[in-house]
């Protein structure tokens, strides 16, 4: 039998356990799990998967809220040589049906609260199903399994993009790509002394997945406190109770945490936040650093890059940037003609390296459009400065063209977030007969705050160029977000074009 590849994720996990030993490593809902317990359960689950017919290369769906079984299942799936297919738990039945059918999954591991949703969506597909707390025990009763050989470029994970602009696409990620991205995260965290982290992110998203893999590269014992899902009141409580030092977040979480009452809870143990998944408005970064006494380290990546392109570190961080390219990544900025642009000039962010996806599942045409000559075309606009720091400006597809002038939604959103009453903001273009597109925005106010849309229009008018400021700002009870906390621009566009919300 051939040996596993050098970057096999199951080998990485096993070596981490051998190197760091047994200790209390994961706290979840009142109970500690040791690293030995997690390792031994994963070895048995791998054997259980094999006994139930899962073969190397088979796709195994993981549809759960955050639980310890997510960590265990990922390890077991890779140990069995199968392909982890994480699915965000906030899916509609048609979206889930598409993912299950498109992936050709043979098995699934699900939370009991999602069993009804899953069974309805999976009807007739013949997927062997294991429910945590129910027949998942059958997997744990399996004989301990060794590591199935898989090459560095073999498929390790199939992640489906959010589908906010169309049907979700399966992104194929290799063992080496995820291995290298995990090492990129670990190298950034090594510039801090923090070892105790709160995980509120869905582990079924690329960002959460890479944070978990990063632990296996660590030279120190790391302790994780896991939230089933993001609970801001619980977040404050857990940080204080367990003296936690860091927490990976997406930008939309920070305004919610800033508004959360703390009472007499001591959060002074916090050292830094890792922020990724979307651009972080400067006003939110400044407010978070001041309120929590932390440094916010930003990173940048996308599912198609195995989650990591660039990271900030404690020694190297610069206001407004998302850090320098990770060691395994090359970054260049191209104009619309595909030619490199000088430092400081905006263009499309492109990345090359082992983290670039193997391709889109069952879609070679879209793969060829997105990855050209080994370079991933991210669809994001940004620039590099003279020192190699990367700055993300906006999504190319979100660009608003008003009367021939380019308007980046983020420029408008950053100004709106400077207003003390605004908690979240989203800017989009609305079709307009005179200007082609008109700049409009929606906002969500901080608790207890009141301000009218007209007042916010005047606020931005005084701070933005004439062609940039929004002609309409609509106050919403809640700005639409995706299941991973990003602004759902498709939903915002649909809303403003339908005239929803309150402009008063």
UniProtKB/TrEMBL annotation:
A Pfam cross-reference name: AMP-binding_C
Domain AMP-dependent synthetase/ligase: 14-361
Leader sequence segment: none
Domain of life where this protein originates: Bacteria
AMP-binding enzyme C-terminal domain residues: 412-486
Name of the protein: Class I adenylate-forming enzyme family protein
């Amino acid at each position: 039998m051939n040996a596993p590849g050098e970057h096999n994720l199951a080998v990485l996990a096993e070596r981490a356990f051998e190197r760091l030993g047994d200790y209390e490593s994961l706290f979840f809902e009142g109970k500690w799990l040791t690293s030995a317990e997690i390792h031994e359960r994963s070895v048995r689950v791998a054997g259980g998967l094999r006994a139930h017919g899962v073969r190397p290369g088979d796709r195994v769906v993981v549809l759960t809220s955050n639980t310890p079984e997510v960590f265990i299942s990922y390890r077991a799936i890779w140990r069995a040589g199968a392909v982890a297919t994480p699915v965000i738990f906030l899916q509609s039945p048609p979206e889930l049906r598409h993912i299950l059918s498109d992936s050709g999954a043979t098995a699934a591991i699900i939370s009991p609260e999602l069993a009804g949703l899953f069974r309805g969506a999976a009807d007739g597909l013949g997927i062997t199903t294991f429910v945590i707390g129910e027949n998942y025990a059958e997997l744990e009763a399996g004989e301990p399994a060794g590591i199935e050989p898989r090459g560095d470029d073999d498929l390790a994970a199939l992640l489906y993009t959010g589908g906010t602009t169309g049907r979700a696409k399966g992104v194929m990620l290799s063992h080496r790509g995820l291995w290298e991205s995990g090492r990129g995260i670990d190298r950034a965290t090594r510039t801090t002394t923090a070892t105790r982290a709160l995980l509120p992110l869905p582990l079924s998203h690329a960002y959460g997945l890479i944070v978990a893999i990063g632990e296996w590269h660590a030279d120190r014992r790391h302790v994780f406190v896991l939230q089933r899902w993001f609970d801001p009141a619980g977040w404050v409580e857990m940080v204080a109770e367990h003296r936690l030092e860091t927490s990976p977040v997406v930008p939309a979480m920070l305004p919610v945490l800033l508004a959360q009452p703390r009472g007499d809870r001591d959060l002074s143990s916090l050292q830094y936040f890792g922020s990724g998944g979307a651009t972080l408005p400067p006003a939110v970064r400044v407010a978070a650093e001041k309120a929590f006494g932390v440094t916010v380290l930003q990173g940048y990546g996308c599912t198609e890059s195995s989650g990591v392109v660039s990271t900030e570190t404690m020694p190297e961080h610069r206001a407004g940037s998302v850090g320098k390219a990770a060691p395994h990544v090359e970054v260049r900025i191209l104009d619309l003609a595909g030619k490199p642009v000088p430092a400081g000039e905006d263009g499309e962010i492109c990345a090359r390296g082992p983290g670039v996806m193997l391709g889109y599942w069952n879609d070679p045409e879209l793969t060829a459009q997105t990855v050209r000559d080994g370079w991933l075309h991210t669809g994001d606009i940004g620039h590099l400065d003279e020192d190699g720091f990367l700055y993300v400006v906006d999504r190319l597809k979100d660009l608003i063209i008003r009367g021939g002038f380019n308007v980046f939604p983020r420029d408008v959103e950053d100004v709106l977030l400077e207003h003390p009453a605004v908690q979240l903001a989203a800017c989009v273009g609305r079709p307009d007969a005179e200007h082609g597109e008109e700049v409009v925005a929606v906002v969500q106010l901080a608790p207890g705050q009141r301000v009218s849309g007209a007042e916010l229009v005047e606020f931005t008018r005084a701070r933005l160029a004439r062609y940039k400021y929004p002609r309409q700002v609509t106050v919403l009870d809640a700005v639409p977000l995706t299941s991973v906390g990003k602004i759902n621009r498709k939903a915002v566009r649909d809303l403003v074009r339908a005239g929803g919300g309150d402009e008063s």
